[in-house]
Automatic annotation (TrEMBL), chain A:
One of its GO terms (biological process) is amino acid transport. GO terms for molecular function: transmembrane transporter activity. This is Branched-chain amino acid ABC transporter permease. One of its GO terms (cellular component) is plasma membrane. Pfam families: BPD_transp_2. It comes from OM182 bacterium MED-G24. It is a multi-pass membrane protein.
UniProtKB/TrEMBL annotation, chain B:
The keyword Ribosomal protein does not apply. It comes from OM182 bacterium MED-G24. This is ABC transporter ATP-binding protein. CDD domains: ABC_Mj1267_LivG_branched (cd03219). The keyword Nucleus does not apply. PROSITE patterns: ABC_TRANSPORTER_2 (PS50893). Keywords: ATP-binding, Nucleotide-binding, Transport. GO terms for cellular component: plasma membrane.
């Protein structure tokens, strides 16, 4: 029973890591940039949802839709105004820029909403299901189901839709994408919008169980580890990497001395880099002679 | 009205005048070759036409319409397809998927219909697949249909890139050194499929090529470039005997 209980909470926490990791991977695959502000974008999404649902008192579904739209627009604007002028600059400058962006977002959120932790109340907050001794909160069910649905939608989007296929093409060869008639720059904006939308979804899903405060974006670092474990560049790998880290954390918290839980993400990362540096789902093809 | 016209086009990189006041026009249905020694500006011309580079001065007209500042992703819609000297393919995908992306500009369905794979999308996909299969048959790629590009030999990759360009159903195909890196047998084939593209599909062919045998076999007209300037334009025999062209290739007779 105890094991099942840990497994469920681990998976639900892992889904959140996975979703943020997905945002990292999407941007990296399409634009070869790493956005270290991904966790902060999630935090911003949680605050925006909190504002719409709790401060303005909008119906929850409407707050969710509006949050996703606002955050997608935020992502697209970030790409257009901040990242695009960086085209051609060394990757390290871009990396520093996104780290700096994270600081600005944390400080900005603190200035707007204050630094005290808030809670996003939702129509499903507080409910529990008792599955023969395993107690699962509605919030956790929503996280798991929400992540599953989002993954399915993303799968269909990348597999079948015109824009999704264009994104894949762009990530493999920009020059060729241009001459197939794909507006590569617009695709970059869309990738950022999508990635910010996914981060916002993670924020909305995790907000009812975690506290909403400007520092909540720090779990982005664990999500980054998850992305690497999954094989940076693989979308299913990101989710799976997140779930592995989430589950191990839960077990470490119970069975190992205090402190191990918090570091377990990095231990997994180190082990992975030693044993299988290409990650769970290798995306880099081996060079053939 | 010419299909494509370059009007006094210039571009320099730093102090190097890559292309200098180049003017020429290509008529519909032609096979038009651009020759010249290394560094003559041949590939730069292609990159100007496909809008990878911006002209510093001069204009480019396509079917009488100025396209000097059209963004490069719109070039395919206009009906201009191209290949690259060293191939630019989607390396991790199969030949079939590389060719299907050539249909991107012809897709008319929306994202929701796509994701549910509605009957209208299905019909559209079937049409695309049929057209792609026709191209595969034309260029004899049946054997490689489901292979990933990264595993294919260079000659086949070059053919896949040509096939992908044809899937756009272009009015003109720009071929950047179609025979480079190919063995003599494969080069022989190049002249056959260029004729097929030109006659069966009715596409105008504009190519940059070094192999003079191939050029004289297939070209209607040839443009000779040297140091970014036009030396001469004419039929292949005219160009081969043109004194300026001979001097550019062989140097002055002392």
């Amino acid at each position: 029973m105890e094991v099942l209980q840990l497994l469920v909470s681990g998976v639900s926490q892992g889904c959140v890591y996975g979703l943020i990791a997905l945002g990292f991977v999407l941007i990296y695959k399409a634009t070869e940039m790493v956005n270290f502000a991904q966790g902060e974008i999630m935090m911003l999404g949680a605050f925006v949802a909190f504002t719409f649902a709790n401060l303005l008192g909008w119906p929850f579904w409407m707050a969710v839709i509006m949050t996703l739209l606002v955050m997608a627009a935020f992502g697209a604007l970030t790409e257009r105004l901040i990242l695009r002028p960086m085209i051609g600059e060394p990757p390290f400058s871009v990396l520093m820029l996104t780290i700096g962006m994270g600081y600005v977002l944390r400080a900005g959120a603190g200035a707007i909403w204050g630094n005290e932790p808030r809670t996003l109340t939702t129509p499903y907050s507080g409910g529990i299901v008792d599955l023969g001794g395993v107690i699962i909160g509605y919030e956790n069910i929503v996280i798991i189901v929400g992540t599953a649905v989002l993954c399915l939608v993303l799968f269909l989007f990348f597999r079948y839709s015109r824009v999704g296929i264009a994104m894949q093409a762009t990530s493999q060869n920009q020059l060729a994408a241009y001459y197939m008639g794909i507006p590569v720059k617009r695709i970059y904006s869309l990738v950022w919008a999508l990635s910010a939308g996914i981060a916002a979804t993670a924020g909305i899903l995790v907000a009812p169980v975690a506290l909403v405060d400007p520092l909540m974006g720090f779990i982005g670092i664990k999500a980054f580890a998850a992305a690497i474990v999954g094989g940076f560049g693989s979308l299913p790998g990101a989710i799976l990497g997140g779930i592995i880290i989430g589950v191990v954390e839960q077990f470490a918290a119970l069975y190992l001395p205090p402190g191990f839980s918090e570091t377990s993400a990095y231990v997994i990362l180190l082990v992975m880099l030693l044993v299988r540096p290409e990650g769970l789902f290798a995306t880099m093809l081996q060079k053939k002679v | 009205m010419s299909l494509l016209a370059m009007n006094d086009v210039s571009l320099s990189f730093g102090g190097v005048k890559a292309v200098q006041d180049v003017s020429f026009s290509v008529e519909k249905g032609e096979v038009f070759s651009i020759i010249g020694p290394n560094g003559a500006g041949k590939s730069t011309l292609f990159n100007l036409i496909s809008r990878l580079y911006d002209c510093e001065s001069g204009q480019i007209f396509w079917q009488g319409e100025e396209i000097t500042s059209v963004p490069s992703h719109r070039i395919a819609e206009l009906g201009i397809a191209r290949t690259f000297q060293n191939t630019e393919l989607f390396e991790h995908e199969t030949v079939l998927r590389n060719l299907l992306i050539g249909k991107h500009i012809h897709r008319r369905s929306n994202a929701v219909a796509d994701m549910f794979f509605l009957p209208s999308v299905r019909r559209q996909e079937l049409v695309f697949r049929k057209e792609v299969e026709d191209v595969i048959d034309l260029l004899n790629l049946q054997h490689y249909r489901d292979q990933v590009i990264a595993n294919l030999p260079y000659g086949v990759r070059k053919m896949v890139e040509v096939a992908r360009a044809l899937c756009i159903q272009p009015k003109a195909v720009l071929l950047d050194e179609p025979s480079s890196g190919l063995n003599p047998e494969e080069t022989e084939d190049v002249s056959f499929w260029i004729e097929d593209i030109n006659e069966e599909l009715g596409a105008t062919v504009i190519m940059v090529e070094h192999d003079m045998k191939l050029v004289s076999q297939v070209s209607d007209r040839v443009l000779a470039l040297a140091d970014g300037q036009v030396l001469a334009t004419g039929t292949p025999p005219e160009i081969q005997q043109h004194p300026e062209v001979l001097r550019a290739y062989l140097g002055d007779a002392e």
